[in-house]
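for ur thesis appendix - Putative FeS assembly SUF system protein SufT. copy paste whatever u need, i formatted it the way the template wanted (i think)
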Amino acid sequence: MTSTTPLAEQIARATEALRQVIDPEIGLNIVDLGLVYGIHFPEAENRIRIEMTLTSQFCPMGEAITDSAAELIREAFPELEPEIILVFDPRWGHHLISEEGLQYLNS
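the 3d part is after this line
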């Protein structure tokens, strides 16, 4: 039997919500693509902070991706306000793609 903390359960729930966000140019979800850098639940704040990146700073689908991420987080956590923070350091690279993502891309 494994036990998880409430924070670990929240992070897992947020991760599953973000797996529904598909990068429309690549066809892979943003979690397996390695675009999600962090999921935070700041204490005493009614928000969830998602630190993520895009495949490039000038990604033409960036706004659609971040809007979709915010919407799905809002659905998973209706009591919290999503805060999407785009970061470009470190830069995204193929080395960030999960094993599952690589298998999908190579199929």
